[in-house]
User: What shape does this take?
Amino acid sequence: MPQLIDGKKISAEIKDELKAKVQRMKEGGVSVCLAVIQVGNDPASSIYVNNKKKACAYIGIESLAYELPEETTQEELVELVEKLNEDKKVNGILVQLPLPAHIDSDAIIRTISPDKDVDGFHPESVGRLCIGADGFVSCTPAGVIQLLKRSGIEIAGKECVVIGRSNIVGKPMSILLLRENGTVTVAHSRTRNLKEVTRRADILVVAIGKPRFINSEYVKENAVVIDVGMHRNAENKLCGDVDFEDVKGRVSAITPVPGGVGPMTIAMLMYNCVRAAEK
Assistant: This one.
């Protein structure tokens, strides 16, 4: 049986560390505050926002919730973000994506101050990541690095393959693995001979967005497999981009879905928020 990389356990450790740190900061007169903006009532977004509020409450971070109607204009949203940028009490600003179709997400992300961009999506945050400067890192890839490190998995010198090139996961993931001295290949929908590429990987990070797409034919013996995907199958059960049952007998370590990468995203958001207050 492979090592099961337990995101629930590791995210709980990180939250406990942050809780102790926030308590010490409060004793020193520094409070932490996160503003969360949701436009419309997309059910998945509502679940995420609720989970973020719960995590804030547990750690001791004050959360300000702005639940705006679907018909909120882009101008109104920009105005709110700019007001929060100026608010000295607010350390982090999070605008829950996706936004309604009439609002340009990119314009909203660019409006958030890079010093309060706890999602790590602002072009300046991405630029800082690329050149190795201090800045906020996109939460899911940052969470994957923590999963590997806290599970005792060495990254330096390893062949790492990332499937997916999105701005939120694939691209920052590849840069973070490079930063940890991995040898990194980014594969995607146009990659030829994908199985040959992925079978070279000592560490395979899958963010392809297709349920149970990666089976044992794509995986090298004793590889470490990190599944970033999240879907519901025909029985309405959560599953990832990796066919867990088919792959698990071949690998040395693997993340389950649910309970792998998912909990880490919120833990790293909280980490970024505390860092913003420390700065």
User: Anything to note?
Assistant: The chain has two domains: 30-113, 139-262. Residues 139-262 form a domain with the Rossmann fold fold (CATH 3.40.50.720). The first helix runs from residue 7 to 27. DSSP finds ten helices and eleven strands in the chain.
